[in-house]
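Exam prep: given the inputs below (a chain plus FE3-S4 cluster), describe the expected output before reading on.
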Amino acid sequence: MAKQLHIETVGCQMNVLDSELVAASLVRAGYQLVDNPRKADVILFNTCSVRQHAEDKIYSALGRLKHLKDHHPERIIGVIGCMAQKDQGLIFRRAPHVDLVVSPGQLGRVPEVLERVAAGAGPQMEVSLDRTWAVRLSVERSFLPLDPSQRAPTRPARHQALVRIMFGCNKFCTYCIVPSVRGPEQSRPVDEIEAEVRQLADQGCLEIPLLGQTVNSYKHRAGERTYRLSDLLDRLNDIEGPRRLKFVTNYPRHMTRDLIEAVRDLPKVSPYLHVPAQSGSDRILKRMKRGYTAGAYREMLAQIRQTVPDAAITSDFIVGFCGETEEDFQQTVDLVRDGRFKNSFIFKYSTRPGTKSAEKYADDVPYDVKRRRNNGLLAIQNAISLEDSQSFVGRTVEILVEGPSKTSLKRAETGPAVQLAGRTVCDRIVVCEGDRGLIGRVISVEIYQATAFTLFGRFQ
Ligand code: SAH
Ligand code: SF4
Ligand code: F3S
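Solution:
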């Protein structure tokens, strides 16, 4: 019987894509995917290190698996992803029942590592070089993204596929662990991305989010020519089949005019831009080493609004960063008020060992203050999101139907008529009653009601 594999994924879309690609490589090696970890011969955790909370949750989930391993020592438990690169051997010490640790830059090795473990070779670890210890080229070579030339059609949603266009990050924002766990920024060749998108188009894919930690700093040299994100979008826009091209996450300083104009001019490029601001205070932005001022960020927003008036802009903010005063926080509040973001993700600063801010600054904002600022900012953003959503009531929008809605799944609806959930071109979630046959199709829906994060519509 085929070996059963279960993958648990947390973290960002990079991890979602990595899990899909690891699963595909193991399915090719003869494994079968299962939803229930108790039925699995191999359980892999694809992990995230961006905040302490994310890591704590993984370690406690690993702890809960100990008894499973005690009863079935032949079960293989693995930790892959960002925490594998950050914690390395510490994982075996904190969770001795773990059999393998494989970092994001080594995921192509998972099948062979599993074979070694199954053959009784004992705990196995494959991680990339430390960025500060080796020369650039060898570090780059030790971070090998898992982007195969052949995309397996077994991905979770047939009509949507994530495509990585760049790996790693060179920005080193002082609070952030990503550059050390994902390695140096490396852009994939245009031709390779184009071939992958064509293949996905042939498989019936309608929506393609292009991924990169700072996606708009994409840069690839081919002979005399340098391709930037706007050039890549231009190429991909010509491919027949896909209806929507998106790209996440943008770095404010690289939101250039040519890119904003590409969003305006290329019909398949969605007017949806996630451009994290992180703070509205120049003093804090400087400490974060973000490389722009709040004023420059506001100017960038104004340029987007002027060029693409219907763009949905979203952002991330960190509250309670080292040394953040009430006045700094008020400047963030002002930016959220003026920014009119469709929505914002708001995080409490979490100190990450190994980052500059952990080294240089005291994590001196008390937890209660972080929580109060987080809730305060969220309330302001939610009120804006609600107003934004309500402006859609009475309008007809096109949505790509993704599947049954969360409510429908909770109710365990089984018939052909279900509550469906889909997204507009600018990433707004819409639910409507309809037939399962509509899943994966683009349909028109008239909006009759709206909450901050969901539009309710009638299929016409
Ligand atoms: N590459 C993306 C996002 C990376 S992480 C970018 O540059 O925007 C996603 C978000 O997590 C960040 O935008 C930031 O808001 C948040 N984040 C990163 N490190 C954090 C930390 N140490 N504590 C709290 N939030 C953090
Ligand atoms: Fe982290 Fe900054 Fe890179 Fe984003 S740009 S991944 S926040 S270091
Ligand atoms: Fe987390 Fe790694 Fe993404 S640290 S946010 S899973 S790049």
